[in-house]
Write a structure and sequence with these properties.
This protein has 267 residues and is of the alpha/beta class. It has helices at residues 18-29, 41-53, 68-81, 106-131, 155-175, 192-195, 200-208, 212-223, 233-244, and strands at 9-13, 33-38, 58-62, 88-91, 137-142, 179-186, 255-258. 46% of the residues lie in helices and 14% in strands. It binds nicotinamide-adenine-dinucleotide (NAD).
Length: 267
């Protein structure tokens, strides 16, 4: 099937690791040029080299996407490099620090708000005028199944992911028919998000009072996933590429689960 992505330019936030990197590579394999923002300059350079190996252009800018100034400086520097504008925006960057509700401080709520929700708000607002210049532009945002079906923890993260889904619906109505706006809601995906020190595996370890790997397995049992495993970044990347492509030309305002079957309700 023809995705129609060859020669297009895709901006991806948080593209140095995990799902963002896998998504950058998946677009590159479809012939799209990839523009990436992240604060991890070392891994960003590695990802850019992998993109160029696919025979397309890679643009990368180091930016802290948790602040207004960081988003503005990063996107201004990025747009100055892009010869063909922007066809697709992937709002991927996100961060989670799972703790029981009473242990989440105001500072953590504000950090979670800034990196998970306000990055999407600020990046989208900055790029909308550029996306509106294209005939078939698309925005895909990376939310979470926890935004549709929150667990006991992390409450701050789940609340921001729900807000991302609400914003997806608002933008889909506001920007139609020129720009399609969709979201993915991944279930647990094994990436640096889980494995880094202080990441989801360590958070689950202190919540369940077990070693990290055992705590992850325990958490998966509690979630009763029909597919009974964590997902891989590439499995989310494939769905994001589909939603951004011509193959999804009648899909807007939708939330696509990539979650091993975690969501139990019908709508
Ligand atoms: N892994 C999962 O289980 C899972 C599940 C559902 C949703 N998600 C969502 O998918 C997205 C990607 O997650 P992932 O698993 O690839 O995580 P990851 O931690 O592997 O990658 C996140 C990327 O964002 C970058 N980043 C973090 N804070 C930043 C900042 N302030 N400025 C710039 N860059 C920053 C990191 O350097 C990293 O490259 C996130 O929005 C996450 O919430 C992940």
């Amino acid at each position: 099937m023809e995705t129609g992505l060859a020669g297009k330019t895709v901006v991806i936030t948080g593209a140095a690791n995990g799902i963002g990197r896998a998504t950058a590579l998946a677009f590159a394999k479809e012939g799209a040029h990839v523009a990436m923002l992240d604060h991890d300059s070392g891994k960003l350079a590695e990802t850019a080299a992998l993109i160029r190996d696919c025979g397309v252009e890679a643009f990368s800018v180091e930016a802290d996407l948790s602040t207004a100034a960081g988003v503005k400086a990063g996107l201004d520097a990025m747009l100055a490099q892009l010869p063909r504008g922007v066809d697709v925006l992937i709002n991927n960057v996100g961060h989670g620090d799972p703790k029981p509700f009473e242990e989440i401080t105001d500072e953590q709520w504000e950090r979670t708000f800034a990196i998970n929700l306000m990055s999407m708000v600020r990046v989208t607002r900055h790029l909308l005028p550029v996306l509106r210049q294209k005939d078939k532009a698309a925005i895909v945002s990376n939310a979470s199944d926890l935004g549709r079906q929150p667990e006991t923890a992390p409450a701050d993260y789940a609340a921001m992911k729900s807000a991302m889904l609400a914003l997806t619906k608002s933008l889909a109505r506001a920007e139609a028919p020129r720009i399609r706006v969709n979201a993915v809601a991944p279930g647990p995906i094994w990436s640096t998000f889980w494995s880094r020190p202080g990441g989801f595996a360590d958070g689950m370890a202190s919540i369940h009072n077990m070693p990290p790997r055992q705590a992850v397995d325990h958490e998966m049992k509690l979630r009763q996933l029909p597919l009974a495993r964590l997902g891989e970044p590439e499995e989310v990347a494939n769905v994001m590429v589909f939603l951004a492509s011509d193959l999804a030309s009648y899909v807007t305002s939708s939330v696509w689960g990539v979650d091993g079957g975690s969501i139990r309700n019908i709508v």
